[in-house]
Structure formats: structure tokens, C-alpha cells
Amino acid sequence: MINLTCILLIALPMAILLVALFFLPAYIGRQNKAVFEYLKENQEIMRRQLETAYKRDSEKTLMSVSLQAYERLSLFLERINPPNLLSRLSRPGQKVAQLQTVLLNGIREEYEHNMSQQLYVSNLSWDQVMRAKNEVEMLITEAASQLDGNGSGTGLAKGIINKITENKKNPVDQALHILKQELRKNF
Description:
mainly alpha
């Protein structure tokens, strides 16, 4: 009986070990597959969450940049507004031709500094800004063409202001109105 007991004591653990060795790889494989599926699902959830967060951050950034574009274009229009342009750039003793050049160069510099803002506003707004810029340049050129180039720059300043008064329309006002209207509509 001892031999049978010894054999059972040795055979039973070996049988358990063999069964475990036979079923263990399948069990581990199922566990690995379950863990892999769990990780895959979590990775997909994390990817969607990151994508959503990225879109939200991108929209906030774009909104911020768009608001800054409206602000910069409003400032551009105010800076090229003839009364503001004249008070900022005219100097005592300037001749008509000198003042005309200074004013047109001032507009051009302001435009070059702000032209990238067209990416963040509608075509309508950008067209109005361009129309205002072009009309202010034409206004200056027309007023200067009616004067002697060596005449006093003060005469040109008065001529520009008179043309705005005669037309009862400042070219900048309409563009500012469109920008404000669009800004209120979009934000």
C-alpha cells in the first residue's frame, strides 16, 4: 500500500501539473486577449477624447485669432481714417506733394502690416476694408491733384476734409459698420 500511496502522491501532482500545463496556455491566451481588447478599447476612447479636446482647443484658438483679426482691421481702418491719418502724419512746413507721399506711404505700411488678417474674416468684410483703403487713397490723390505740389500741406489737409464733408461720407465708416455687424453676427 505504501507503493500505491507513494505512486498516488507522485502521480496526482504530476497529473495536476500536466492538466495545468495543457490548459494554462489557453487560459493565458484568453487573458492576454481580454487585456489586449481592454487596452485597445481604452486606447480608442483616449484617441477620441484627445481628438475632441484638440478640436475644441483649435476652435478656441481660431475664434481668438478671428477676434484679433476684427480688432486689428478695426484699428487699421481707424488709423487710415483721413482725420486720424492727417493728425498723425502731417507736419508743419510740409508741401502738398510731401504730405501726399507721407499719407499714401502710411496707408501702405498699415495695409502691409495687416493684410494677413484677411484669412480670418469673411470676403465681404475684407472687400469693405479694401474698398475703404482704396477710397481713402483716391481721396488723397484727388485732393492733391487739385493743388500745386509745392503748395502748403495744410491746403491738402483741408482739401481732404472738405471732400469728406462734401460727399457726406467717410470711406472708413461703411467698412467699420460691416466689420462690427459681422462680428456681432459671428460672436
